[in-house]
Amino acid sequence: MTVTDAHRAIDAVWRIESPRLIAGLARMVRDVGLAEELAQDALVAALEHWPDDGVPDNPGAWLMATAKRRAIDRLRRNTLVRRKHEEFGHDIEGLHMGAFDDPDDDDRLDDDIGDDLLRLVFTACHPVLSTEARVALTLRLLGGLTTDEIARAFLQPEPTIAQRIVRAKRTLAEKRVPFEVPRREDLPERLASVLGVVYLIFNEGYAATAGDDLMRPALCEEALRLGRVLVGLAPGEAEVHGLLALMEIQASRSRARIDADGNPVLLLQQDRARWDRLMIGRGLQALERAEQLGGARGTYALQAAIAACHARALTAGQTDWPRIAALYATLAEVAPSPVVELNRAVALAMADGPAAGLALADTLRDAPALQRYHLLPAVRGDLLGKLGRLDEARAEFERAAALTRNGRERALLLQRAAECGDAAPAEG
């Protein structure tokens, strides 16, 4: 095996195994930051040994055994081993007795691995951290992404992301956040935080807030992977299935959302033959499971049900807009927000005509949360244009273009503004 081939293999193994590795170590040392350091030490060891020795038959077990030996060395070098001996003495004794002398001996490595991963998810997404910190730490610990990859994905300077991750790990340690699955009474709030982080990652990939690309597929893929992991770890939670359903169905449109030049293609103009029917099928199954678990009125399940209306329509004309409007009305009851109302305005316009949609959109013009939200003037521009009020529509599209930070969206909005000007009747 060449050095290059070994490094490629190590990179692939790291992406797959690092969450399990960090989770298992965190259970042992009760410190997420230290667990990640130990995992990185094991990665360095792999980079040193595998190019010459070859990739072991069970690379995950090799990394875990190496990391745990490094943990013993680390603990021996300081007084932590005496203070912590009773807390995780079972693991330490097993290591001292040579339980992991064979790197491929994985008899115990999968013990509670699902629980360990779930603990890591809840720790990385703990409410004691800011939303930005939760996102960065989740991608680092559970996605195996490097600091540079996270920075590039969010168009942030690498030192900013690095500092954010360091602060997050320090905060978890200082606040003594326990490495555990929350108690049943705390689970709904904590699970909402986890799902919110995963959905934020997905949304940033699906509709990038800034930059020159409409989408960042790697983030969508990472969010989907995390969603599938969560379904495996919490199969009885309806909203976990609801979120996965929503992401699967939304992501099914990815290939149709941009043209050959990378420009956005609006939903009603997309070639539905390019939608991924396999992803749609998986999404519909996840939605059905969410509903079977009693989660039909969950916020993610409702959004997935809306997405399913589009997915089931083989042409734009077959879309069940009255049902979509009704689903948005229910969503507005369950999780009221100006953004939900704006989406309901679009659905009303399709179901009952542009005047009905514009009337609702106009009630949102003073909503503080939408003052810098480019989609409000974009929606108003579209509805005003359909009503023949082209000068007003052009002004709204220009305002929306000024508000967006995404270059592709800006170009589309300016194009639509220009089309309003071209279609406006000449004066005099």
TrEMBL record:
Residues 190-290 form the DUF6596 domain. Residues 19-79 form the RNA polymerase sigma-70 region domain. Residues 122-172 form the RNA polymerase sigma factor 70 region 4 type domain. InterPro entries: DUF6596, RNA_pol_sigma-70_dom, RNA_pol_sigma70_r2, RNA_pol_sigma70_r4_t2, RNA_pol_sigma_r2, RNA_pol_sigma_r3/r4-like, WH-like_DNA-bd_sf. Gene3D superfamilies: 1.10.1740.10, Winged helix-like DNA-binding domain superfamily/Winged helix DNA-binding domain. NCBIfam families: sigma70-ECF (TIGR02937). PANTHER family: BLL0085 PROTEIN, BLL6612 PROTEIN-RELATED. This is Sigma-70 family RNA polymerase sigma factor. It comes from Novilysobacter erysipheiresistens.
